[in-house]
Amino acid sequence: MKTSFLAFLITLLFLNFAQGQTITGQVKDAKTGEGLPFVNIGIIGRAVGTVSSDAGSYRINLSNHVADSLKFSMIGYRSQVFAVKELVNQQGALNISLAPEIKQLNEVKVTNRKWKTAILGNTTKSQGTTAGFDNNALGHEIGAIIKIKRSPTWLKQFNASIVENVITDSVKMRLNIYSVKDGMPDQNILNQNIFVTVHKGDKAININLEPYNVMVEDKFFISLEWIQSARGHGIMFSASLLSSAIIARETSQAAWEKVGIAGVGFNVLAEY
């Protein structure tokens, strides 16, 4: 009887401890008070993180990360960073407010230059070699480095060929574009979020980039980020060998890694 009671007590203490390592709450716009959808939430330098829901709510387990820091970030807002040790004993929901941040827009210059258009990147539509999202992991991001022909270059449209689409309804993704440093993604150069909704049965993703006024002066990294829970196993894109390697990360604060030997078929229509 004493042994059973002791086992019960240990289990109860363990459950309370585990519960104390998980925090929940809502991320809000500091100006409007409304929930912020698809905010990146992650342990800095670790492959641990999540993305807030379309209403701004979130849930993240911080077990074994008491010495680390948790970052809330989103394009167009000032990031916030917290020491995990200050959060694990938080009573009740941890609601976070992010303040809007205004970034300088790219200046549109009118010149007499004769502009050319071209498709840059990997144009494969292979059905045999694929790469992409094989699960429903929020914050998972994959992409490729694309070289330009001349500076400046304006990005007009993003394209990707879908080979396997096993979601049961639809899923929202975020397109990100980064500068490149030492052969890896560096800083996100976008001034606003670019979202795309992929529906069941879609065979391609085509995103008009002209409203976003995206200009690059050197090679860049372009990626898709899985930001919404969806029923199904994921989405796979055409890929090819003998092309730039896939670069991916598990969450917004994880390290970038080169994955496999194939390159994902991401390309852009550009003007230069």
UniProtKB/TrEMBL annotation:
GO terms for molecular function: carboxypeptidase activity. Residues 1-18 form the signal peptide. InterPro entries: CarboxyPept-like_regulatory. The keyword Nucleotide-binding does not apply. It comes from the Bacteria. Keywords: Carboxypeptidase, Hydrolase, Protease, Signal. This is Carboxypeptidase-like protein. It comes from Mucilaginibacter auburnensis.
